[in-house]
Specification:
Number of domains: 2
Shape: globular
CATH superfamily of the largest domain: dinb family like domain
CATH class of the largest domain: Mainly Alpha
CATH architecture of the largest domain: Up-down Bundle
Order of helices and strands: HHHHEEHHEEEHE
Largest sheet: 4 strands, mixed
Low-confidence stretches: none
Strand order of the largest sheet: 4-3-5-6
Helix content: 40-55%
Structural class: alpha+beta
Radius of gyration: 19 Å
CATH topology of the largest domain: Four Helix Bundle (Hemerythrin (Met), subunit A)
Distance between the termini: 29 Å
Mean pLDDT: 96
Number of helices: 7
Strand content: 5-15%
Length: about 240
């Protein structure tokens, strides 16, 4: 049984952080812009609520063996976020808090054998139930930054930053739409290569702290804090990783 204790604890911490930030918003703040283009803070909060329910669907799948996708369709996902975001501030706070509590309770109650059960993410990727806590960690910690209330990537748990850098760089490796870049961490050892391999293109090098690399890889920062070997000294623009 691959019980993901490490990510369950990080998930709990992420829930506490983002809910505290939501509770700290004044009612008028929900209509203010988030750090995500096209979304105000209410959209970010609504997405967090519906994502918790969607991940609960995956846990139900792992527990019962009955295929239960995260969302019925892409349209249903988008519609659920929009509907949630239109709630008043008090209702939206209550919604995201209740959704978070349901997901935590489902994780706590999951039978040991369900952690190894095969399920599929929204993109169709085959994973096991043990992946779900990490999937929520990724959502809560990154969207705590996206709320634009002062949380930065420096506030993320180091193990969350490290896992995000590994995952995103791994997802960009080999992609033809990504520039060829070698990444190096300046604070904790680590190197990664992104972009297509074997093209004969000389890789640019980008070096910086892992938190800064993480923000750049996730498209939350332009990489101005990073050192780059590109002609203009700027880290190159990267494609969306998801």
């Amino acid at each position: 049984m691959a019980v993901p204790h490490r990510w369950i604890e990080a998930m709990r911490a992420g829930e506490a952080l983002v809910l505290a930030r939501v509770d700290g918003l004044d009612d008028d703040d929900f209509a203010g812009p988030s750090r995500l283009p096209g979304w105000d803070r209410a959209h970010v909060v609504g997405h967090l609520a519906r994502n918790a329910d969607a991940l609960g669907n995956l846990l139900a799948w792992a527990r019962t063996g009955v295929p239960t996708p995260m969302y019925p369709s892409a349209e249903a996902r988008a519609g659920g976020i929009e509907e949630s975001a239109r709630q008043g501030p008090a209702a939206l706070r209550a919604d995201v808090g209740a959704a978070s509590a349901r997901l935590v309770a489902e994780v706590d109650a999951l039978p040991g054998t369900a952690w190894d059960a095969e399920i599929r993410t929204n993109s169709g990727r085959r994973v096991t139930g043990a992946e779900v806590p990490w999937m929520r960690v990724r959502e809560t910690w990154v969207h705590a930054v996206d709320l634009g209330t002062g949380v930065t990537f420096d506030d993320l748990l180091p193990e969350v930053v490290d896992a995000l850098v590994d995952e995103v760089a791994g997802g960009l490796a080999g992609r033809d739409d990504c520039p060829v870049v070698t990444l190096s961490a300046a604070d904790r050892s680590g190197t990664w290569s992104v972009g297509p391999a074997g093209t004969g293109t000389t890789a640019a090098t980008v070096t910086g702290r892992r938190a800064d690399l993480c923000a750049w890889l996730l498209g939350r920062d332009d990489g101005a804090a990073l050192d780059s070997s590109t002609p203009d000294g700027r880290a190159p623009a990267l494609p969306r990783w998801l």
